[in-house]
Each structure stands twice: as C-alpha cells, then as structure tokens.
Design a protein that fits this description.
By secondary structure, this protein is an alpha/beta fold. It has eleven helices and 13 strands.
Length: 299
C-alpha cells in the first residue's frame, strides 16, 4: 500500500516509517525540514515539503494513499505552535484532506490520559479533541494512546541517565508513587503497522509495556541501566509545582512545565493495555530496552 505519514522525522515517527518500509509499503512523508528528512530517503520514502497548515502539501500527501498515519504532536507550546493549532486544527486539516482524497484508513497517535474533563491539561484536552475529529471523520480508523515510549531518541530518559552519571542525587517529585508503564518504541511501531494493514482493528487502543512501575522504580531502572544508580531525594510536590511554573517561562527550553508535572503525577499506566491482547505483540521489558541504548560500553 501507499501510506502517507505525518511526523515521520520525529522520535516515534522515524521508527514507524522504517517499520512500514521494511514491511513492503510505499511511504510518503510530510516534512517541514528536508535536512532532517534525508535519512528517510535511504528507505525509499517520498518526501513532501510542507506542514499541516499547507493545504496544497496535504493534498499532495494524501493523493492516491490507501492510509494515513498521523503522528504530529507537541509537548511544549512555542509561538504559533500551540496545542490547539497543532493537535486540533492540524488534525482537522488532515482529516479534510484525507476525505477529499478518498483515503480509506486513518491511524492516529493520541496519548494515555486524553480526555475532556474539568482540570484536564491542555495537552490531554486537545489530544481528546483531535480524537473526536478522527472518530467523526467517517473514515475507517484506529487511535493509539501509548504510555511513555522508550527508545534511543527519548530525550527525557537520556537526561535522567546523564543525571545518574553526573549528579550526586536524583530528585523525585512528591512521594514518587505515581504509575507509569513504559513501552518500547519498536513495539509501538509494529502496532501501528498492523493497524494500517488490518482495517478490522477499529477504535481506540492503549499501549503499554509489560510492567507498571512507580516513578521511583522508573528512576532506579534508568540508573542501573546507565551504570551509575544514585540515591533518590524527594522534593515536596508544592515546591516542584512552583519550580515547574517558573520553568514554563522558558518556552521550548523548559526542562519541566506545570502541565508535564501534572501529567507525570496523574500517571500513565494502561489498565486496558492492548499491545498483546489485541495486536499479539510480546512487549519488551523496560530494562531490556534501556540496556540497548544506555548500558555503558565495555572493552
């Protein structure tokens, strides 16, 4: 099939695009920065310069495609790149282009915790609004809500690994008992490919790894994989919220925002984990994935 992909140069997008190409599909990718996309050309990926705000580029992207994989998302708002503009309006434009091109299948990246309730972060609320656009599009669709995705390009995990190597202690927000369920990026990529290939897989699917870890356990596993586990020091949650609010003034350079802290404390475990029960994928344990890219080199 010809598969159109948005977000192909991102952390998860590169793995999904490579997975689709390895499975014999022709892939066409919407890219804003051609220099970042050059590695995709070696996979035979057709590049379409443009963005989700570019109607002509979206028409080119979707023309003749059997399916669209929509991966574009942001974690921090900067300038015109707001959650509303990217998650909601960007998805709206893509859905409209896919309908005009008579694309039969749409596979969409959302997030665990996406919902529209009082107190919900703007990130999760706009992710839910994007899901609603997909659900009401009239297209055959699958929506994925992965937990934290682990892989070589995960910047926060690498930052925590560097902290274990160079800092005498590692800060833990609050009691550190909030749950997470890290999932290996290649397992996520395979689930996306299977959803593209099997149109009977319809609805919203949560994806997680085989273990639910507290945040404390999550930090300790990273320390062991990095080869320098450090003591953990608890930081009162109220103080962490003050610091996160101050960091938010830094925009894209912020190491932690108030919304990110709230989502961390809410947790990202997936009680309805579909990775094995629906997709038949035996998920890689978090520590085994970390050892593939964090373990100190020997010899």
């Amino acid at each position: 099939m010809l598969i159109a992909v948005t977000g192909a140069t991102g952390f998860v997008g590169r793995h999904i695009t490579a997975m689709l190409a390895r499975r014999g599909h022709a892939v066409r990718a919407l890219v804003r920065d051609l220099r970042r996309a050059r590695a995709l050309e070696s996979l035979g990926v057709e590049l379409v310069p443009g963005s989700l705000a570019d109607a002509a580029a979206l028409n080119t992207l979707t023309h003749g495609a059997s399916a669209v994989v929509h991966l574009v998302g942001i974690i921090v708002e900067t300038g015109d790149a707001t959650f509303q503009a990217v998650h909601v309006e960007g998805t709206r434009r893509l859905v409209e282009a896919a309908a005009r091109a008579r694309v039969k299948r749409l596979v969409h990246m959302s997030a665990v915790g996406a919902r529209d309730e009082p107190g919900t972060t703007r990130y999760h609320r706009t992710k839910w609004q994007a899901e609603e656009l997909v659900r009401t599009s009239g297209l055959s669709h699958a929506i994925f809500r992965p937990s934290l995705i682990s892989g070589p390009e995960n910047a926060p995990i690498r930052t925590l690994a560097r902290l274990h190597r160079w800092s005498p202690v590692i800060p833990v927000f609050g009691d550190g008992h909030f749950p997470t369920q890290p999932v290996w990026v290649e397992d996520v990529a395979l689930a996306f490919a299977l959803a593209v290939e099997q149109p009977t897989l319809s609805g919203a699917f949560e994806l997680g790894g085989p273990q639910v870890l507290t945040y404390e356990e999550f930090l300790r596993v990273i320390g062991r994989a990095a080869g320098h586990p450090r003591p953990l020091v608890h930081v009162p949650l109220g103080l962490a919220r003050v610091v996160a609010a101050a960091f938010g003034l830094l925009g894209a350079a912020a190491p932690l925002t108030s919304d990110q802290l709230q989502m961390l404390v809410e947790g990202s475990a997936t009680p309805a984990n579909a990775i094995e029960s629906v997709f038949g994928i035996r998920p890689l344990p978090f520590d085994q994935g970390l050892n593939r890219y964090l373990a100190p080199r020997r010899g």
